[in-house]
Amino acid sequence: MRSIILTLFLFKVSFSSSTTDNDPTRTIESGVVIGTSTSIASSPFGVQQFLGIPYAAPPVRFKPPQNPVPWSTPYNASTYRPACIQQFNYPEEHRTRIIEWLNTPGPPAGESEDCLNLNVYTPISGEQAKAVLFWIHGGVFSFGSGSLPLYDGSSFAANHDVVVVTINYRLNIFGFPGSTALPETERNIALLDQRLALDWVQRNIAAFGGDPKRVTIFGESAGAGSVDALITSPPDPVHFRAAILHSGQKTFNPKSSDSASSWTKIVTATDCPQEEPAALECIRGKPASRLKDIIEKAALPFDAILDDSTLSKTPRRNRLESAKNPSLIARVPVMMGTNANEGSMYVIGQNDTQAFLNTALRVLYPGGAPQELVQKVLDAYPLGEPGLKTERDRMDRILTDVLAQCPISIVAEDSVGVNISTWRYYFDASFPSSELFPGSGAYHSAEIEMVFGTFDRKGATDAQLEVSKRMQKAWADFAKNPEKGPGWGMVPEVGVFGGGVRAGERNLGKAVFALAGEDLDRRCKLWESLYRK
């Protein structure tokens, strides 16, 4: 995977210096944009790329986004523009590992507060009013960018005649300032950025061959949480007709946002006045590099607050009551799923499940986890069962269930229970070109390169090529006809990609099949009390 990403990075840089008379040109609301064209080896169609288009004016720190300022001369959209300010927390070993695994190579144009831009990938031929897939990246609301080569939409667009849009949005303290001087409805700035980008698509995507009435939003991890927030706290009007959630949701959130606490610590660290609004104005005047240094070294968390505007205080109730009151949520067809080893990257170096549980459960039990609960968990995940050969396997499985699979299964059940067309997938494969480390399995985010087609094709196995082909088709089929679905039955059925294929194996027969959700979720009853409130 790393080699293909580096190749793509160099490919983009080669376009950065100038444009030619033959480059594709589009006229949008803000003015003329000039992109580039390229061919895709796996597709008979070429792709036009329009990169780094501003969907908002240069942002004012800690203020909601505004529409872009029109330009009078053609805008060079042949190269990526800066990502938003990133946060990779210390200690150094942790920071280095996350950067290597999830951000290498990093954003091609660096990072800046002036980062509210998006990228459009559109096929050169095919139908004119194409389905649109609008990607919201993950990164725990701390890091990430729509410009990462992992999210290059060229292969996806060319192979399936769809338009792919990837976006930046403000992150960490810049996306979730915890100042009480700000109205609650202006503290989830990151979510407001996403909504303005989605609004931009409605106004401009037709210029790129996309149909604004056929938009599917999709995202992974924090991006999937953002998609869920758009569903359960929908904008008016709703600017999408379908949604896909990869390994994340915002219906169940184990803990509330720490942004206010983090804000207080930043105010103290910068010697700003403790009182508001003086603290807010003081922080506004500090260099971004100084704030970045503070939040990374102190490992400060940031997340959305429940403002009942961009993030509902009652998302589950809204979904469950939406059959009687449809305006509570966006009642659109949904597909959601998880990977088999969501927890693998978080249990590196650990080999004591009981000690791990005692530490992990302190979030729910500050005075110490009841030992009968710890023993109950250990009994539910016995060593020696298929897939649980080692202590690390067991901890990985526990984290996968608690953080991803079990909450997603309940959201899916709730959704289909109120007559929303709902599908579910499960990704269970790993390949030599994409392993983070030996035994990483189908780790958190591993499916993304399969959907976007950005894995290393030179080292790809036949199974890898086949799984990616089937995943791209399923995602595209869903976007083109959401009510028909991705190609397998609705919940409780689950479409499985990979079927347990592991690095070094060749098994085309396990590319995709379906199983019953109850077989996949058999341990989730143990964790129900965390979610069913």
From TrEMBL:
Superkingdom of origin: Eukaryota
Assigned keywords, A-Z: Disulfide bond, Hydrolase, Signal
EC number of the protein: 3.1.1.-
Any Pfam family: COesterase
Segments forming domain Carboxylesterase type B: 23-481
Entry-linked Gene3D superfamilies: alpha/beta hydrolase
Signal peptide: 1-18
Gene Ontology molecular functions: cholinesterase activity
Active site: S221 (acyl-ester intermediate), E342 (charge relay system), H444 (charge relay system)
Entry keyword annotation includes Hydrolase: yes
PANTHER family, sorted: ACETYLCHOLINESTERASE, CARBOXYLIC ESTER HYDROLASE
Family of this protein: Belongs to the type-B carboxylesterase/lipase family.
Protein name per its UniProtKB record: Carboxylic ester hydrolase
